[in-house]
Write a structure and sequence with these properties.
Layout lengths: L1 E12 L4 E7 L2 H4 L6 E5 L10 E3 L1 E5 L2 E7 L9 E8 L11 E7 L4 H12 L3 E7 L15 E5 L8 H7 L2 E5 L5 H16 L7 E4 L15 E3 L5 E3 H4 L2 E3 L16
Amino acid sequence: MQQGQAIIERIRRISAGVQRLELAVEKPHQAISGGQFFLARTDSAYGPYLREAWLPIAVRENVVIVERPTRYAYLPNQVIDLLGPIGRPFPLRSSARTLLLIAYEATPAIFLLMLQSALARQCAATLVLIGQARRYPFEALPPALEVTLAEYHERWAEREQQIAWADQIFAAAPPPYDIPAYLRLLEDVQRIRQAIGPETLYGVFQPPMPCGIGACQACLVRLQSGDEMLACIDGLAFDLTRVNLLQNLPNSPGA
């Protein structure tokens, strides 16, 4: 993880709510993989706790593309202070040939950089957009990607077939939707597949991550073993068969 500066070269609005920023970045920041992120600061104020998580969706040469809500205003040639890459890449198995990605109530941007490499190696991928995630513009997604829409989890009509089909499953939901969504998904996968193999079912945890280095411990994820891991260092993706989801509810004992 390194600190450096990036310059906004281009801003492109892809929908009413989403814009893409093309950032000219320094060499250490070009080596970012799907599942990792930057902590960005747009002003000159000092201190790591004033940063926001920025998710890359594509990398090419010395440019990293990130998505940001259009409620935030940026300017060409604006300088951004970046800290990263932070976190671990998504654990996409080299043997995986079918990939199921599920976005609950938020943009699927977290998956797009991983998709770039998965599709390049001929993986078949399906993206399920649930709830508010359905607003994401289809034209901004890779043409080879199959997309399924559902109003909410129980209305996801093809979930039994798609869960049975996938070699690996990754789900992403922002707090406070994440734990309830992952509990329903884990129950479905256990029922449909009977046994869940290792490195099969992952949930993306995106709690507040003020520091990005684990010092503040604001992003603890509690495991079935009783151990604790940090979303910013050990995540963002965790094997849902190892996570104690009930202990990670905001009002649970020990939370």
